[in-house]
Every structure is written in structure tokens, then in C-alpha cells.
Amino acid sequence: MSIVKKTVRDIKSLKIQGATNVRKKAISAIAKSVKSSKEKNPANFRKEFFQNCSLLFNSRPTEPELRTAIRIVKQSIADKNLSVSEMKEKIIESIQKYEKNRAKAMEDISRFGANMIEPNSTILTICHSSTVVKMLIKAKKKINHVYCLETRPRYQGRITARALSDAGIKVTLLVDNAASTVMKKCDYFFSGTDAFLADGDIINKIGTNHVSILCKKYDVKHYAVMSTHKFEPSTLLGKQQPIEQRDVSEVWSEKEMKKFGAKKIKLMNPAFDRTDSSTIEGIICEIGIFTPQNLVMKLIEK
């Protein structure tokens, strides 16, 4: 199995999780496939490269950061007169430049977010966002306590809880439906963002929307943390961002259902939900902190 097909399989099976990790692994697979390609004919090499890009591009429906990265890398060989060696060089150079740019973006996001957090803050998080984790670790001297929602059915909140605890931050992990029981203690709710839409709404891990609505009730500020590469430009043209439906066995296995006598019960397992911009205080990204609508305008101008 090729490195690209193996990476696609791992993304689809959720062996690779988190938008940043998905992007990194996908771009790494492209780099390895380019370096190892045996194609000598420029047209055949270009065809092979674009096919690999397409496989990765379509590996997950809710991964605009991945798609943005692939678009940028593909642009590196826009010149139709390049030799195979020239294309390889340009693609690898583009990937290296892109990853360097993303590393700087991560640092900038962490800095903007950490500077904004007030001393002795209590924070609520959901799921696992490497960007949120890095930001909170940078701000750890200002943080009194972090409550991490476990994020069923795959419990990615445990990853966040452990990372923050290992960094010396006081952490409590709790079940998703207990969010309201700690909300009054919290100053902020920080979520990641899987996709940022043209109307300012965000797509993120299932449960983000109802916690954001609770934030409005309890006067807790919800900040979505993201790279601007999470923006999905196709939504400017009215295209809807699909919500991925994952294997329902994550919720209740067929074996357990039969044992329980629940053969006629239908299951749903949406991986994400859509949070309305009206419940989001701001977006923390590498170019600053903006209201959702102001960030949309800024990205359109760019």
C-alpha cells in the first residue's frame, strides 16, 4: 500500500485525529510520495501527483485546513513546462515553506490567546484541539483550573486533560452533559474549529453548539481558536459544509444492542455540529482576535 493510500485509510478510520495532525500527515505523505516517485515523464508525474492530492483532499468531508494546504502545494507546479526534477523541487520547497508558515501561525495564535486570558481564570474546553492546548499551556500561569468535557463517543477530551495536566495545569475531566454544573465557575469556553464558514458560523466537535448556547445563558465568553486556513471559501458561494456521520457502532455496538434487545432502535453519530456566530464572542487566530463577522470580511479582503 502506498504512503498516500495508507494515510487516507488512517484519516478515514480516525487513527489520525485533529485538523492540524490530519494536515501534517497528509502533507508529509505527499512529500514522501513525490520523493519516491519513479515517474520520468513530466505529464505522468503531474497526473500521479494530482491523483494523490485528490485522494487526500477527499479523505474527510470536514477538513478545510487540509484542503487549503493541498491547494497551496498544487499551485507550486502551475507552470506547465517544468521537468520532473523541477516539479519535485518546487513541491518540496512549497511544503517546507508552508509548514514553517503554519508553525509561526501556531505561535501567533498561542500568543494572542494567552495575552487575552485574565489572571486566575477558570476555563472550559471540549474535545481535543492541539491549538487550544498550546495556547492554554502558554497561559498556564494565569489559569486557576480547566474543566475538560470528555467528548463522547471517542473521548478525545481525555487527550486534552492529560496534556494540560502533564503541563502542570489543574484539570478536571467531566461528562459532556455536566457542562452546566461548572459553567458558573468558568470565565471562558475555548473550542477548536474544524471549519469556519462565510456567515461566521463554525463547525466543530459535536456538543460545541449546545455548550456555546449555555455560555450565552451563563454569561461565559466562548472563543473559537483556529488558523485562518480553516476558512471554507466554497461557503461564500452558498455551498453547505457537510456534517460527517460516523460509524454508529461507536455509540452502541451491534453485539451490545442485540444483548440488550434493542434491534429496532436507530442510531445517529454526527461527528460535528454547527455553532451560530451569535453565541461566539470571538475568533482567536494568527492575525489577531476578531468577531466572526469581522474575520470573514478580513479574509474576503485577503
From TrEMBL:
GO biological processes: L-methionine salvage from methylthioadenosine
Entry keyword set: Isomerase
Signal peptide feature range: none
Enzyme class, first EC level, given as a word: isomerase
GO terms of molecular function: S-methyl-5-thioribose-1-phosphate isomerase activity
Family: Belongs to the eIF-2B alpha/beta/delta subunits family.
Protein name as catalogued: S-methyl-5-thioribose-1-phosphate isomerase
